[in-house]
Design brief:
Blueprint (H helix, E strand, L loop, with lengths): L1 H30 L2 H40 L18 H17 L4 H13 L3 H16 L6
Helix pairs in contact: 1-2, 2-5, 3-4, 4-5
Length: 150
C-alpha cells in the first residue's frame, strides 16, 4: 500500500509540474515572435514526453499487478525465502541461488507467463532491474497472447 501511495503522490507531482511547464510553453507561443514560439514549442516537448512516459509506466505497473493477483489466486506467487542481512538487505548468495532455480524453470517452460513472472521477481531480488523489467514485459506479453521478441 505504501508503494502505491508513493507512486500516486509522485505521479501527481509530475502531472502538476508538466501542467506548469506546459502553461509556460503556451505563454511563450502566445508571445508570437519567432524566438518565443520556437522556445515555446521546445518547452512543450518535455511535458508531452513526460506524460507519455508516466502513462506507459502506469500501464506496466497495472498489468504486472494484475498478473501478481492472478498468480496469487492460483497459489503460484513465489515465497520470500531469501536470507537477509541485519540491515534488511537481501543476501546476494541467497538471491543468486533462487535466481538459478527460476532461470531453470523458465528455460523448461519458455512460453509460460508464470515462470517469466517469477524470473522477473528473481532478477529484482538480485538487483538487476533492467532484466527484471524485460522479464516482466515478456510475462505480460505471454499472458496477453501477444508475440514475444526473442
Amino acid at each position: 500500500m505504501r508503494a502505491k501511495l508513493s507512486y500516486a503522490v509522485t505521479a501527481a507531482v509530475l502531472v502538476f509540474y508538466f501542467v506548469l511547464v506546459g502553461s509556460r510553453g503556451v505563454m511563450l507561443i502566445q508571445s508570437g515572435t519567432l524566438l518565443t514560439v520556437t522556445f515555446g514549442v521546445a518547452v512543450l516537448i518535455l511535458p508531452v514526453i513526460g506524460l507519455w512516459f508516466l502513462w506507459k509506466n502506469t500501464q506496466f505497473v497495472r498489468k504486472a499487478n494484475r498478473l501478481a493477483a492472478e498468480l496469487d489466486s492460483e497459489g503460484g506467487l513465489p515465497v520470500d525465502e531469501l536470507k537477509r542481512t541485519p540491515g534488511g538487505r537481501i543476501d546476494r548468495d541467497a538471491a543468486d541461488e533462487v535466481f538459478a532455480r527460476r532461470k531453470a524453470e523458465t528455460e523448461a517452460a519458455p512460453d509460460d507467463w508464470r515462470s517469466w513472472f517469477r524470473l522477473a521477481i528473481a532478477y529484482h531480488d538480485a538487483r538487476d532491474t533492467p532484466r527484471a523489467r524485460k522479464a516482466m514485459q515478456r510475462a505480460i506479453a505471454l499472458h496477453e497472447g501477444r508475440p514475444v521478441q526473442a
